[in-house]
Every structure is written in structure tokens, then in C-alpha cells.
Design goal:
Rossmann fold; Immunoglobulin-like
Length: 401
């Protein structure tokens, strides 16, 4: 199954483009599902048919779904209270009734991620189109599975569960109660669910598309979004320029806005595969309007991009002198970071992890095995690519004869 993740600045027409992309694929014969987590039914407004928590067929071969974060959060809390009943009873805590529960921040994001996972595992469709939140929230959403899995591994290391027979003894020696079995089981279940979402995002059949109006503000938002995606090891296959104005007469008031759009479009075309979506003169609503947008189609064949075996799918690991040795080997890790500014970049080596920060954006990644036995020798940003030099640690690399 192909998956297309669509995001962009707020108000750029992301949901409309998502609906048009799914409708175009369905019209071409694919079984398509368009998924949105917007509280207001902007997806239904674009399709001309109301959508909700129950998947609904809105056109031949096209299903729309807006999962309910409130109901899912209530179910999760009820299940948690059931598993933790002994602890809650010990503390004298009273149960929360489902009717009094309101979702906490982040519940909508988790609900959307689970819906993506469920749709991918069901394999009932040929194409999944996901209407992500605006770019800043979408970047946080895409980072969530990896970050939560990292927290779980640090707080409840799986290897400690193997010593469950020793936990009573360890508890007496440490003087504190050890985590209960259900806690490890819950953590393992969450880890499995989050790993499934990560697999969908990292799959070679998953594409990311940015939607933005060609304006100075849109250009700034696209630059930040592209950098944020690069930190996650992702890059857009298309930049969809929305609401592109038609050519105007010389004496028209549209001359200025049209010229501004053309300038931004020319700049974008130097770095992106840009597809212009025309301004219809009104908000698109219904199948006819969506078809008139002529959004990019969906490739039937898998991506031909080769994904190297590192935590940055588009990164490259090179050796300046063949196989590195403790005496003369140097490894250079090339990480594409288009739009990065040298003064806003920061690197911190922490054990087997590397913390990469670009302004307000940050990612913590596990170093490839070869680099864990090296020390950082320097870094440079050249032509939109971060190059980090590593030299083998003599104490960790075998000496050559």
C-alpha cells in the first residue's frame, strides 16, 4: 500500500489537496482512504460529504475517516485503570468515569498515529492519504513514535523484564518496590504499536508532500518544514503551490500579487519538484472542484530511492581511507539538512547517541555501530549537507599489524 503524508503551513489548503489527491487516485481505479484528525470537518467540507469517526464511502472506491480522539482516550484510560487496579486500590484512588474524561494534549496526535497504523495493517486499500496537522505540529507528530519509544527504553529497559524472577530480591536489596509485570507488558505493547507507526513513515512506499501558497511567508514556512523533515530522515516528493493566481492584465490590481507569486515559484523550482494548483476564485467544495485542482498523481511503482542503513535514511557514511583503523582511518557522516543555518546548528555526543539541533528543531539518534567506536573530530555545513568527521578510538578499534 502506498501512503502519502500531506502537510504545510496552516491555512495553505492541506486538507483540500489531501481530498483531491485521494479522489484523483480513486477516479483512476485505486481503492483510496483519506484520513484526517481535524476536529472541525474541513475534510467533509472539501468533499461535500460529512465525515466522522466511522469510515464512510464518499465516492466510488474512496473512503474518508476522521477518528474520534475523545472515544479512544476514554478507552485507553479505562483499560489503564483496569490494569492498575491493585495499585489504585493501594493508594485509595477513586476511578474516573468515562463520561467525565476529556482528552489530554497529544491525544489527537496519538489517535491519528494509531489510525495510520490500523489502516496500514488492514491492507484494505491501495492508497492511504493522511491529512497531517500544520507543519510545526506535523513535525512533532512524526517525531512522537521515535521519542516515546526512546523514553520507554530508558524508563523500562526490556532486559530488566527478563529478570522478573529476581525482582522481589532486587526490591528488598534496593529498598524500593520494583515495577509490576503489567507495567512491562503495557510498555511492550506500546513499543510494538509505536514501532508499527514508525515502519509506515519510514517505508519506501511512503511519500511526504508539502502544500504552501507561493508567498514570502509560505517560502519561510517551506524552508523550516523541509529542514524539520530532513532531521526526521524525510524529504518531500512534491511541493504543491496552492492558490496560484492566473496572469493578470497590466493595469489590474492583481499584477503585484501575481508577480510576487511568480518570484517565489521560480525560487522553489530550483530546489523542489513544484506542482502549481490554480486558484479557483472560491473555496473548493465537492468532487468537481477537487478534480479541477489537478493535483499530482500517485506513482504505482515503489520509490527507486535507495535507503542506506542508518538512522537518517538519506545520509551517507564514507571512509576517507578504506576500512577505518585506529591509526589513520576517518569516517565522515553526510546528513542532508537543506535550509540549515550554520549559526543555528548544534551537535552533542552523548554516549552512543548524537543530538542534532537546528534552531528550535532537534533529533536524538543512535549512532551507527561503526561510529560508536569513534570520537567526533569536527563538523561542517556545506551546500545544505552536515558533514561530521569521526576518528576511531584507539581503545575500541583493533590495532592493525
Amino acid at each position: 500500500m502506498r501512503t502519502i503524508l500531506i502537510t504545510g503551513p496552516g491555512g495553505s489548503g492541506r486538507t483540500t489537496v489531501a481530498a483531491a489527491t485521494a479522489l484523483a487516485a480513486a477516479s483512476a481505479g485505486a481503492r483510496a482512504l483519506v484520513l484526517s484528525a481535524d476536529r472541525t470537518d474541513t475534510l467533509g467540507a472539501a468533499l461535500g460529504v460529512a465525515t466522522g469517526p466511522v469510515p464512510r464511502q464518499v465516492a466510488p472506491r474512496l473512503t474518508a475517516w476522521r477518528p474520534d480522539a475523545v472515544e479512544r482516550f476514554r478507552d485507553d484510560l479505562t483499560a489503564f485503570q483496569a490494569r492498575a487496579s491493585s495499585v489504585l486500590d493501594l493508594l485509595g484512588a477513586s476511578r474516573l468515569d468515562p463520561e467525565e474524561v476529556t482528552p489530554l494534549p497529544g491525544a489527537e496526535e496519538l489517535t491519528l498515529l494509531r489510525a495510520v497504523r490500523d489502516a496500514a495493517l488492514a491492507e484494505a486499500h491501495d492508497l492511504l492519504v493522511v491529512d497531517l496537522p500544520p507543519a510545526p505540529q506535523a513535525l512533532a507528530l512524526l517525531a512522537l513514535p521515535e521519542e516515546l519509544r526512546r523514553y520507554l527504553r530508558r524508563l523500562l529497559p526490556p532486559e530488566r523484564q527478563a529478570a522478573r524472577a529476581l525482582r522481589p530480591v532486587l526490591g528488598r536489596l534496593a529498598g524500593v518496590p520494583m515495577p509490576a509485570e503489567w507495567l512491562y507488558e503495557t510498555a511492550a505493547r506500546w513499543d510494538t504499536e509505536l514501532a508499527a507507526v514508525e515502519a509506515v513513515v519510514a517505508d519506501r512506499n511512503t511519500a511526504v508532500r508539502l502544500v504552501a501558497e507561493p508567498s514570502p511567508a509560505g517560502a519561510d514556512a517551506v524552508r523550516t518544514a523541509t529542514l524539520g523533515l530532513a532531521l526526521r530522515g524525510l524529504r518531500p516528493d512534491f511541493l504543491i503551490a496552492s492558490r496560484v493566481l492566473p496572469e493578470a492584465a497590466a493595469d489590474s490590481w492583481l499584477t503585484g500579487p501575481v508577480a510576487q507569486q511568480r518570484k517565489v515559484l521560480d525560487e522553489w523550482r530550483e530546489s523542489y519538484d513544484v506542482r502549481a494548483v490554480p486558484h479557483l476564485g472560491h473555496d473548493p467544495r465537492g468532487h468537481d472542484d477537487l478534480a479541477a485542482l489537478a493535483v499530482p498523481g500517485v506513482k504505482a511503482e515503489p520509490s527507486t530511492v535507495e535507503w542506506p542503513v542508518t538512522d537518517f535514511p538519506h545520509s551517507r557514511l564514507r571512509s576517507s581511507g578504506g576500512t577505518p583503523t585506529a591509526e589513520d582511518g576517518v569516517l565522515v557522516w553526510h546528513i542532508p539538512l537543506p535550509g540549515a543555518v550554520r549559526d543555528e546548528l548544534d551537535l552533542i555526543r552523548r554516549g552512543d547517541e548524537l543530538v542534532v539541533s537546528a534552531g528550535q528543531l532537534r533529533r536524538i539518534v543512535q549512532l551507527p555501530s561503526a561510529l560508536r567506536r569513534c570520537t567526533v573530530d569536527g563538523a561542517a555545513l556545506r551546500e545544505g549537507e552536515l558533514r561530521i568527521r569521526f576518528v576511531p578510538d584507539p581503545d575500541l578499534w583493533p590495532r592493525t599489524r
